Amino acid sequence: AAASIVFRSHDPAYSRLLLNRAVRVFEFADTHRGAYSSSLKNAVCPFYCDVNGFQDELLRGAAWLHKASRGRQYREYIVRNEVILRAGDTINEFGWDNKHAGINILISKEVLMGKSDYFESFKQNADGFIYSVLPGLAHTQVQYSPGGLIFKPGGSNMQRVTSLSFLLLTYSNYLSHANKNVPCGMTSASPAFLKQLAKRQVDYILGDNPLRMSYMVGFG
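The line above is the sequence of cellulase; the predicted structure tokens follow.
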């Protein structure tokens, strides 16, 4: 569905093919709900087990189909299944196994651009997610290293840093266009602050860190 948007103006036929295929895949997934690792089992576990469930995949699929097709049925699906599919599960992570934070950021654009007020709760979730990862706040739910890098316990920390930075940058762009800030208790976080925080993470990875070492293979 997302790719169909990219090809819409340059190759309409291919764009329609992609969108039609996305519709079929979504209908299959929604009809046969469940985690892929339940059937593949040892082929993907223990390294790629679906720990967080299938709910985020369905919501994300509906969100992109709504964006690509503007079909009312997908908007209604999102609203109808918001609670059932746990849209509020913003657990400060965005990756292959948990996409809830990204879903809320994506759908919140509809509200910020004034296109729909059906999704106001998704914007509130997005604001809450951003608030929870900002440094220096009492309720932050991620850690920061002494040098300023986002840190979450577990392996492969850089994928967490880059994905969270992507969401910070994306949401800052949405907020800039809407001339909005993220409410943070008695204060607020501006789009410029979110961009600065995202840039700080990327700069750290590329070598602006206490060790003066690039963490990206092939750079620095």
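Note on the example: The beta strands are 143-144, 150-151, 182-184, 187-189. Residues 109 and 174 are 6 Å apart (CA to CA).
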